[in-house]
Task: structure prediction
Amino acid sequence: MPPKPASDSSRFETLIHDVPDFPKPGVVFKDITPLLADAAAFAEAIGQLAERVRVHRPTGIVATEARGFLLGAPLALAMRLPLIPVRKPGKLPRRTINASYQLEYGTDRVEMHADAIVAGGRYAIVDDVIATGGTAAATAEMVEVLGGHVACFAFLIELEFLNGRQRLGGRALEALLRY
Amino acid sequence: MPPKPASDSSRFETLIHDVPDFPKPGVVFKDITPLLADAAAFAEAIGQLAERVRVHRPTGIVATEARGFLLGAPLALAMRLPLIPVRKPGKLPRRTINASYQLEYGTDRVEMHADAIVAGGRYAIVDDVIATGGTAAATAEMVEVLGGHVACFAFLIELEFLNGRQRLGGRALEALLRY
Result:
């Protein structure tokens, strides 16, 4: 058999570096900074993500602090869609709602402005990586509490072995790279 | 005298909301989330920022966590330039350098990957707001320690009454809005 032609994602794959034992022993961190530093590859990644997200007809992009901003903001610009930031507690200045999610030990919380979502709107929830899916699920909960629909989740990277997808209740999920 | 014609920035100005007493009593916070939520105005802001930054011929965009990512990432995409994130301590996975800056009480620190800057490269340092200029000055210090030049600083908003500009040693500074 001839070798399989390089997939679209093979270019990106070489620009995502494994960093072992970060942030703690036994964890392999996916470092996206080499991709950010390659302007052509980054533009291509945002373009491909936009193409996949467009299929789900979102009316807004919801991006999660902090690395989610690196993908979500250019994606919103590329798609000419409103950008809604989800932040850690205490960072947003006006009235917020929040949602909690389980960590290995304890819980964490994310916030969104209470007027950020248009009732009936369709939102793409964007982050760099889906690991256990806690942040994504909490973000979806806030969008829905405020009367919005989750059009899809969109990630640069899905860490399939962590089964984050299972926490997202069968909603559409796009990822450029899977491990 | 006839009223002055609306400047280019008047559209943005109505989308930056003052939030009094945030994050603490006596401070008026500039909330940029209404601008982010207006896709056309946000695209126009990024376009105007790109135009001004281009004059300084940068070879890369350095953006500061977290709100700086919301401006810096789309700006890097629009200008097709490498994007270098500056983060809070402990967030970047590889070898970093850091710089400290003075707060009202105590100090804070930002980090950058030690291999993030190309020696001789020209960098635009981007954030949403310049207040006292501490983060911007610390970021410039890291860029220069690593052998890069600061082409310019670029902000959506300059809070002139806080004199942040004075900490930036006469380097070029672009801001779409001034208060």
Notes: Confidence is low (pLDDT under 50) at residues 1-6 of chain A. Chain A touches chain B through 41 residues (CB under 8 Å). The two ends of chain A are 25 Å apart (CA to CA).
